[in-house]
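Design job #97: recover the sequence.
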């Protein structure tokens, strides 16, 4: 995965913002306010000290700070410094409407960091969310066209994506070899990717 783009842009977002809303808790940095937690993001802990960080979710099941629907968020226009929206838009009924509401609530000059899947396996959670959509680079550019700046990075190359979808996708060594093959063959930036990281500025 493209960890350098991920870390660089999230560091910028947290450093230059006073309030961050994590829609769906996709950063996985709280085991008290979400259904996912990962030690991989421990590097973010120092960044949280000077930021009002809140998780928003449509249900109260996992104890988010805010109960809210991404299609109609409970925030005034131009009121939020930054939004993180990782692995959410494939699970909502109307991602274009959601993208419009994200743009609405962010302050001018504010940030939004997004991850959306493209070639990725089905991953609904029964009783919580469905799995409706996949996104190409073209669809991302259309959905977020109103933002003043947009940086897009492929999450994986074509070969690593293919392996990720196979039974070997959980084997670290094989995934590493696939990543190397993507570099050697020039497939690292192929549009046949598992998903896209996006950094937006309003």
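Job complete. Output follows.
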């Amino acid at each position: 995965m493209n960890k350098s783009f991920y870390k660089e842009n999230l560091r910028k977002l947290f450093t230059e913002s006073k309030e961050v809303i994590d829609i769906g808790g996709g950063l996985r940095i709280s085991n008290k306010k979400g259904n996912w937690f990962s030690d991989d993001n421990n590097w973010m802990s120092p960044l949280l000290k000077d930021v009002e960080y809140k998780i928003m979710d449509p249900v109260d099941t996992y104890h988010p700070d805010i109960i809210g629907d991404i299609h109609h968020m409970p925030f005034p226009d131009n009121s939020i410094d930054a939004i993180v929206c990782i692995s959410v838009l494939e699970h909502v009924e109307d991602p274009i409407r959601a993208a419009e509401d994200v743009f609405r609530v962010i302050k001018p000059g504010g940030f939004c960091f997004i991850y959306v899947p493209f070639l990725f396996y089905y991953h609904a959670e029964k009783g919580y969310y469905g799995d409706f959509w996949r996104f190409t680079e073209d669809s991302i550019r259309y959905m977020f066209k109103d933002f003043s700046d947009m940086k897009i990075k492929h999450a994986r190359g074509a070969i690593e994506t293919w392996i990720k979808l196979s039974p070997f996708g959980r084997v670290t060594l094989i995934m590493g070899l696939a990543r190397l093959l993507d570099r050697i063959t020039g497939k690292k930036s192929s549009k046949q990717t598992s998903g896209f990281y996006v950094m937006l500025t309003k």
